[in-house]
Design brief:
clathrin binding, protein transport, about 55% helix, five-stranded antiparallel sheet, B-adaptin_app_sub_C, mainly alpha, disordered N terminus, 41 helices
Length: about 850
């Protein structure tokens, strides 16, 4: 219950506020609500018409008064008006009285009046006309501070009908004797341009700014002129060739050297602006480059990190065509950057370290002797430690590998688990890029003895990659890995790595078939599809090397894989089954061919992307480690962000009710047309198509259609019987996948959907492709809504427009229960991908539902 308002005795004086107490919301509440302040004020604070009338009366009485103490009384009244305005109370009724009281020499009153006028001028343009006379008068005041404030307020009105009144004060302001007034006038030209570009050009203000930039004695005025001219010509560049020519004149040698010679006079912001301009300058010859670098040499010792980074960008861009000089520039830049990393806040250090990280990745050899600067400090935040670990990995070479690996091994026991994981990965990466890995392999194998789950998991993944590149180390590694119990490895990637080694080196691991058999027996308990895929392949490899011991396990794995609801697992099991039916020797050549050692592992970023990031040095691209178009241009943003609140999306209940309904079941997608006909089903996956079963004739998909004859089924049948008997399937049908039927008439109201969405956890989150036909059909959300409706998956809300669409969908089990599946599907037609999140009342049925959902989506547009 809200506390009762505090009541105070009202003052009898009309100049004092009545006894109301304001309960102002905290700043965090205002930011969270993101609503205008007036909506957050208690209702009893809004009933203040009498107080506003009282203020108007008192202001009118003081207007024009020159009595002693009148300015003090005006100040009190102005403060009350501003305080009311700040908390959202509409005091625009006192506009004329405030303007009348502005006729004073008190600069404090002037500032408060300008603040009031600027706040109400936009929403009350008719009242703004009342301010023109006194603002123009103040623009001619003796005090330069008042002239500047009045000119700034006049330009801030931003009322198109009043543009004609701005030209004369701006012209006078640009020629004013006070630097402050000229500085305000320059920015006023930009405001005028945004209100009326035609008026700005008709008055020839850009030419005046250009002349002022090259002649004014005040550095801040020059900087403002440069900023405004860049803004105007950049906006006009797409409209006229003249704007392009004017923009190029800013990069003339005369202008660049004029600014360079005065650069010490500017503040940090202006220096960064000038340095950014210089980075776009194309020097005429090498002497030009060295002259500029000599003029900027002392900027590398500047205390401000932004100035140092901007200077570094100039040095790097100027010397791109001079390889030897470019390398010397790297050497020269190390000291300033390393100094900046160790000074200032953690956030500043991270920004500088991100740029240093970019340089290290481009030229690691030049920084190899400075590796100790990248050791992690105890007080470093985790994001800084992560960058340092990446740089240590990059600069490791034969001369410093031992010291770096020793330091990284110390981090493996760090209490910060993510950093411990990163350090282990760093050791593995160094091992993969070095030729002499004896000591590193020993360190990695020692990690397996630490008996920490996350250390063991990360190490197993690295050992797998290490064996792919250095198979000669298999004996030492397998001896240690063989002692690890599979029950102690729970992370999917680590378990998949262990299973890969069990299959690849099953000849050297006596217990490999029995470990795999135990894992296959617990197939249903394994949630990760990645592990099940590796388990199928490992069982197949082990069978080809040790058939008698693995025969039963492989049969169980193939039966479970064929019945698996995950499409990839199902497909791989069928592939292996058909390969074995066709020819065991062919299966061995496909599954376990002779392998060559991996020489280089794929880089996550292409060289083109890295070069693009380097071109955007000293921008957010370096911090994000991606080019600017990836986080600014709409077509590269991917699925745009939606609020979790689905109330803002349009409900499509009416379109769903009118959508046609028909039953369709998605069974075996891999059956060929002839197999469907043999099974008595239609050529498409209709309702008559039977469910999964042990294949009777899978060999047909491996034989050319032209060679199929009437005698083939008998031959293939005998082969099928033989392989079934070999694998222990006994010609029995493989277990069918979990049958999941959906209620075609399911109903769920938006409120319940939103409540469930907030309560349930994400069961599956996966990106799936969309066919070109589906992309072409998705011109409006209704097309996909009708298609999913036909598959008993209903849409409760949708939104977006091409190329990004978002859908909230639901489905219900057709078993009489109230078990629902909730889906968030974000479709990006430009990338032909859909990001799908599934939440379910019954999480155990999520994968079966996801398979149905994926199948339905794959048929969209067909």
């Amino acid at each position: 219950m809200a506390p009762p308002p505090i009541v105070q005795q009202k003052s009898s004086s009309p100049s004092q506020p009545s006894g109301y107490v304001f309960f102002l919301p905290s700043l965090s509440v205002l930011l969270l609500n993101r609503k205008p302040l007036r909506f957050l004020i208690p209702s009893y604070c809004l009933s203040r018409k009498s107080e506003v009338s009282d203020l108007k009366l008192q202001l009118r009485q003081l207007a024009g008064s020159r009595a002693p103490g009148a300015d003090d009384s005006k100040r009190d009244l102005f403060k009350r008006v501003i305080s009311y305005m700040t908390v959202g109370i509409d005091v625009s009724a006192a506009f004329s009285e405030m303007v009348m009281c502005s006729a004073t020499s008190d600069i404090v009153l002037k500032k408060m009046c300008y603040l009031y006028v600027g706040n109400y001028a936009r929403c009350h343009p008719d009242l703004a006309l009342l301010t023109i006379n006194f603002l123009q008068k103040d623009c001619r005041d003796v005090d330069p501070m008042i002239r500047g404030l009045a000119l700034r307020s006049l330009c801030s009105l931003r009322v198109p009908n009043l543009v004609e009144y701005l030209v004369s004060p701006l012209s006078s302001g640009l020629e004013d004797g006070s630097p402050y007034v000229r500085m305000v006038a320059v920015l006023g030209v930009l405001k005028l341009y945004h209100i009326s570009a035609t008026t700005c050009f008709d008055s020839d203000f850009p030419a005046s700014l250009k002349n002022l930039m090259l002649t004014d004695s005040d550095a801040q005025v020059v900087a403002n002129c440069l900023f405004v001219l860049q803004e105007i010509w950049n906006l006009e560049a797409n409209k006229s060739e003249e704007a392009n020519r004017e923009r190029e004149t800013l990069l003339s040698k005369q202008t660049i050297y004029y600014l360079l010679n005065r650069i010490k006079e500017f503040n940090e912001w202006a220096q960064c602006l000038i340095l950014e301009l210089i980075s776009k300058y194309i020097p005429s010859d090498s002497n030009d480059i060295f002259d500029i670098m000599n003029l900027l040499e002392d900027r590398l010792q500047h205390a401000n990190g932004a100035v140092v980074l901007a200077t570094i960008k100039v040095f790097l861009h100027l010397t791109m065509s001079m390889t030897d000089v470019h390398q010397q520039v790297y050497e020269r830049l190390k000291a300033p950057l390393l100094t900046l990393v160790g000074s200032g806040s953690s956030e500043q250090s991270y920004a500088v370290l991100s740029h240093l990280h970019l340089l290290v990745m481009r030229a690691p050899m030049l920084f190899s002797s400075d590796y100790k600067h990248f050791y992690c400090q105890f007080s470093d935040p985790s994001y800084i430690k992560k960058l340092k670990l990446e740089m240590l990995t990059a600069i490791a070479n034969e001369s410093n590998t031992y010291e770096i690996v020793t330091e990284l091994c110390e981090y493996a026991g760090n209490v910060d688990v993510p950093i411990a994981r990163e350090s282990i990965r760093a050791v593995g990466k160094i091992a993969l890029q070095q030729y002499d890995v004896n000591a590193i392999v020993d360190r990695l194998l020692q990690f397996l003895e630490m008996e920490k789950d996350y250390v063991t998991a990360e190490t197993l993944v690295l050992v797998k990659d290490l064996l792919r590149k250095y198979p000669q180390w298999s004996h030492d590694c397998i001896a240690v890995v063989g002692n690890i119990s599979s029950k102690n490895v729970q992370e999917p990637k680590a378990k998949a790595a262990l299973i890969w080694m069990l299959g690849e080196y099953s000849k050297d691991m006596p217990d490999a078939p029995y470990i795999l058999e135990n894992l296959i027996e617990n197939w249903d308990d394994e949630n990760a599809a990645e592990v099940r895929l590796h388990l199928l392949t490992a069982a197949m490899k082990c069978f080809l090397k040790r058939p008698p011991e693995t025969q039963k396990a492989l049969g169980a794995a193939l039966a479970a894989g064929v019945a698996d609801s995950h499409q990839d697992v199902h497909d791989r099991a069928l592939l292996y089954y058909r390969l074995l039916q066709y020819d065991v020797s062919v299966a061995e050549r496909v599954v376990n061919p002779p392998k060559q050692a991996v020489s280089v592992f794929a880089d996550l970023q292409s060289s083109e992307v890295k070069d693009r990031i380097f071109d955007e040095f000293n921008t957010l691209s370096v911090v994000y480690q991606k080019p600017s178009y990836m986080f600014t241009d709409k077509e590269h943003r991917g699925p745009f962000e939606f609020s979790e609140e689905i109330g803002n999306l349009s409900l499509d209940q009416e379109s769903m009710d009118n959508a046609p309904r028909f039953d369709e079941s998605d069974k075996d997608l891999l059956l060929s047309t002839s197999e469907r006909e043999e099974n008595g089903g239609p050529s498409i996956n209709g309702a008559a198509t039977p469910g999964y079963s042990a294949p009777h004739d899978y060999n047909s998909s491996l034989v050319p259609l032209s060679s199929q004859t009437q005698s083939e089924p008998a031959v293939t049948s005998r082969t099928s019987f033989a392989i079934d008997d070999l694998l222990g399937l006994s010609m029995l049908a493989a277990p069918a996948p979990p049958s999941l039927k959906l209620n075609s008439k399911a109903a769920l109201d938006p409120g319940t959907f939103q409540r469930k969405w907030g309560q349930l956890g994400v069961s599956i989150s996966q990106e799936i492709p969309i066919s070109p036909q589906g992309v072409g059909s998705l011109t409006t959300p209704q097309a996909l809504i009708r298609h999913m409706q036909a598959n008993s998956i209903h849409c409760i809300a949708s939104g977006g427009q091409s190329p990004n669409f978002k859908f909230f969908l639901f489905a219900q089990k057709d078993d009489g229960s109230a078990s629902f599946f909730l889906v968030e599907c974000i479709v990006n037609t430009s990338s032909a991908k859909a990001q799908v999140k599934v939440k379910a009342d019954d999480a155990s049925a999520s994968e079966a539902f996801f398979a149905l959902f994926q199948s339905a989506l794959s048929k969209f547009g067909m």
